[in-house]
């Protein structure tokens, strides 16, 4: 057995499909968000980041920075253990209260990432429920799919945001069977929003539990940043609300919130929670500061929405293929992995604009795209620069414009 050859062949397959991933070597600059230094071929260049999930710039907010350095100075760097063995720390306990309050729930539980929170919680909840049937939206994130697989429970996939299909599956399963509906509020690659109210009503009608991933909404939607469920006044009708601390809260970690008993069960049974070290106090403390700030400040949310609208408007009017979306996520349709990668490279090298190409398996083949995120710091000058750069790249690489682009359904254009 030539072991190396197996791995080389695996990597070659990715190269052949133009989906071998290359990471940009970046250094973000506090005080100059969204600028970053990019190291490449022995040179350092300043670039504008247009694909960050630090959606509100909270990772550079002075209160958040101060909370992190204060806690690190007073309490040290690592947590020093798992939650069970010496790693539990006061900022983390506070953080869980803050999160429970954010979603109007009895309890919260923090994990080392959003991925881990979905994997550990979905698998544990579905394992504990006898003969559980999981009903999963077809576009759910990889971390939710991992949780579903690890549960070993039966699963059925409903067509994306299709409540009629969901109802058929619920009806067929019957009222008595344990059922867990697993879905997201904002789908991060298309930027569309789930019909939360209809799903909640179906769950109540057929006596199913609901598990909602609000990763791309927390901090940004709802009067206090509680996500789409807060905006729609539905938080109290959803059993488990999950989120990340690493996107609009600007730090690292993930969480669930829900009733005391469900959260306690996950805390007590999930290996992904039990057998891993706790989040460090500095990260927890910084996150508390970010959440508290966003509970009372609309400034970041308002500026973000303003800049998002300006970006969409300018790019659309320039004829660029902006995919229809109601949220802060602005996907630009390319539809070809080679072109998508080339466009991204050219934006970076010629224009100093960083937008990572989104290729299979993150999105279906033939729907490759550039995913643009405007934050409160992406003002008019940066938006005009982006529009001009994109037009140059579209022209040079001969990428299709929006003229024949209808938004839905996506079609292969190259
Ligand atoms: C990013 C993401 C996660 C994972 O969160 P991390 O904190 O980055 O691990 C979970 N769900 C969705 C929908 C995501 O986009």
Automatic annotation (TrEMBL):
Pfam families: Aminotran_1_2. Pathway: Porphyrin-containing compound metabolism; protoporphyrin-IX biosynthesis; 5-aminolevulinate from glycine: step 1/1. The keyword Acyltransferase applies. Its cofactor is pyridoxal 5'-phosphate. It comes from the Bacteria. One of its GO terms (biological process) is protoporphyrinogen IX biosynthetic process. One of its GO terms (molecular function) is 5-aminolevulinate synthase activity. Its EC number is 2.3.1.37. It catalyses: succinyl-CoA + glycine + H(+) = 5-aminolevulinate + CO2 + CoA. Keywords: Acyltransferase, Heme biosynthesis, Pyridoxal phosphate, Transferase. Residues 46-384 form the Aminotransferase class I/classII large domain. The keyword Acyltransferase applies. PANTHER family: 2-AMINO-3-KETOBUTYRATE COENZYME A LIGASE, MITOCHONDRIAL, CLASS II AMINOTRANSFERASE/8-AMINO-7-OXONONANOATE SYNTHASE. Belongs to the class-II pyridoxal-phosphate-dependent aminotransferase family. Homodimer. This is 5-aminolevulinate synthase.
């Amino acid at each position: 057995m030539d072991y190396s050859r197996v791995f080389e062949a695996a990597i070659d397959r990715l190269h052949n499909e133009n989906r071998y991933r290359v990471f940009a070597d970046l250094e973000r600059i506090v005080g100059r968000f969204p600028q970053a230094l990019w190291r490449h071929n022995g040179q350092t260049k300043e670039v504008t980041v247009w694909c960050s999930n630090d959606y509100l710039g909270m990772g550079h907010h002075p209160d958040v920075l101060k909370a992190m350095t204060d806690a690190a100075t007073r309490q040290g760097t690592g947590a020093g253990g798992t939650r069970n063995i010496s790693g539990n720390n006061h900022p983390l306990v506070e953080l869980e209260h803050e999160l429970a309050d954010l979603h109007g729930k009895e309890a919260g539980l923090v994990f080392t990432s959003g991925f881990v929170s979905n994997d550990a919680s979905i698998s544990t909840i579905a394992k504990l429920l006898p003969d559980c049937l999981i009903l999963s939206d077809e576009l759910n994130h990889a971390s939710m799919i991992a949780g579903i697989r690890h549960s070993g429970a039966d699963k059925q996939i409903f067509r994306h945001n299709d409540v009629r299909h969901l109802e058929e599956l619920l009806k067929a399963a019957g009222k008595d069977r344990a059922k867990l509906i697993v879905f997201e509020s904002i789908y991060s690659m298309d930027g569309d929003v789930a019909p939360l109210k209809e799903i909640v009503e179906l769950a109540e009608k057929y006596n199913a539990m609901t598990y909602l991933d609000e990763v791309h909404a927390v901090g940004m939607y709802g009067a206090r940043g509680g996500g789409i469920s807060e905006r729609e006044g539905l938080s109290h009708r959803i059993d488990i609300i999950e989120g990340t601390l690493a996107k609009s809260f600007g730090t690292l970690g993930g969480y669930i919130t829900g009733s005391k008993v469900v959260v306690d069960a996950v805390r007590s049974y999930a290996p992904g929670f039990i057998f891993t070290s706790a989040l460090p106090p500095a990260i927890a403390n910084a996150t508390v500061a970010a959440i508290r700030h966003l509970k009372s400040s609309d400034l970041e949310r308002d500026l973000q929405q303003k800049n998002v609208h300006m970006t969409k408007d300018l790019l659309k009017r320039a004829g660029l293929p902006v995919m229809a979306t109601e949220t802060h996520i602005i996907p630009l349709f390319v539809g070809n992995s080679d072109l998508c990668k080339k466009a991204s490279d050219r934006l970076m090298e010629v224009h100093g604009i960083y937008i990572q190409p989104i290729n299979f398996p993150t999105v279906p083949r033939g729907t490759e795209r550039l995913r643009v995120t405007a934050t409160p710091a992406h003002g008019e000058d940066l938006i005009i620069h982006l529009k001009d750069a994109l037009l140059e790249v579209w022209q040079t690489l001969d990428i299709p414009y929006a003229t024949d682009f209808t938004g839905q359904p996506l079609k292969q254009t190259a």
